[in-house]
């Protein structure tokens, strides 16, 4: 089984790429943080990231989705390393839950060491869920890069292009592995 991660900053196009891959028939696992934010906001919590328990909620959903995923080839829109980057970005100390999940991922060699780093598009559109400026997105992008490198992952840069070109690059690189 091969599990590939798509990472990068907010607004870089990861979700669009994941949806495109899904429409092509690939097994994809959608980002957990977006779903947690949407759920929390629907229950009246406008900024769920202000509560440190937000990090563990993401980790728990990511782990659940990874363990339930099926298929010989899987694409993940962010995983626990991204949640670690988010924790750093929010100035939260990494939780025990987060650190245990990263340890499990490393011990089980859950993901391929080549990670698709989706580079920013030169802007970041704010939404009710994504409330981050472009300048903040650049800082967040750098944190992602540092986290993945610190855990020994190789970042394969996917530069800004039309979505079809970005997806084709990913598919061709996976086919070559």
Describe this structure in words.
This protein is α/β, with parallel strands linked by helices. It has a single domain (2-175), classed as Rossmann fold (3-Layer(aba) Sandwich). The protein is 51% helix and 14% strand. A five-stranded parallel sheet has the order 2-3-1-4-5, with helices on both faces. Strand 4 (114-118), helix 6 (134-150) and strand 5 (154-158) form a beta-alpha-beta unit. Helix 1 crosses helix 7, helix 4 packs antiparallel against helix 5 and helix 4 crosses helix 6. The radius of gyration is 15 Å and the shape is globular. The two termini are 12 Å apart. The mean pLDDT is 94.
Estimated share of beta-strand residues:
5-15%
Query: Strand sequence of the main sheet, in spatial order?
Result: 2-3-1-4-5
CATH class, anyone? Answer: Alpha Beta
Q: What's the CATH H-level superfamily name?
A: P-loop containing nucleotide triphosphate hydrolases
Percent of residues in helical segments?
A: 40-55%
Outline type: globular
Radius of gyration: 15 Å
Give a count of the beta strands, DSSP E runs of length 2 or more: 5
CATH-defined architecture: 3-Layer(aba) Sandwich
Poorly predicted sequence stretches spanning 5 or more consecutive residues: none
Order of helices and strands: EHEHHEHHEHEH
Mean of the pLDDT scores?
Answer: 94
Any idea of the CATH topology?
Rossmann fold
Distance linking N and C termini:
12 Å
- Largest beta-sheet characterization: 5 strands, parallel
Q: Helical segment tally?
A: 7
Structural class: alpha/beta
Whole-number tally of structural domains: 1
């Amino acid at each position: 089984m091969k599990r590939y991660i798509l990472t990068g900053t907010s607004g870089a196009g990861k979700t669009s790429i994941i949806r495109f891959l899904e429409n092509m028939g690939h097994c994809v696992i959608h980002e957990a943080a977006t779903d947690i934010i949407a759920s929390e906001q629907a229950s009246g919590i406008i900024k769920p990231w202000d509560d440190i328990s937000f990090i563990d909620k993401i980790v728990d959903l990511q782990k659940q989705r990874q363990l339930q995923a099926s298929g010989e080839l899987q694409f993940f829109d962010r995983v626990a390393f991204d949640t670690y980057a988010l924790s750093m970005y929010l100035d939260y100390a990494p939780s025990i839950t987060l650190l245990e999940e990263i340890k499990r991922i490393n011990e089980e060699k859950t993901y391929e060491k080549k990670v698709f780093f989706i580079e920013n598009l030169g802007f970041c559109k704010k939404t009710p869920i994504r409330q981050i400026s472009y300048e903040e997105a650049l800082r967040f992008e750098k944190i992602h890069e540092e986290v993945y490198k610190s855990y020994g992952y190789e970042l394969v840069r996917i530069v800004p292009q039309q979505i079809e070109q970005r997806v084709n690059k990913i598919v061709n690189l996976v086919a070559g592995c």
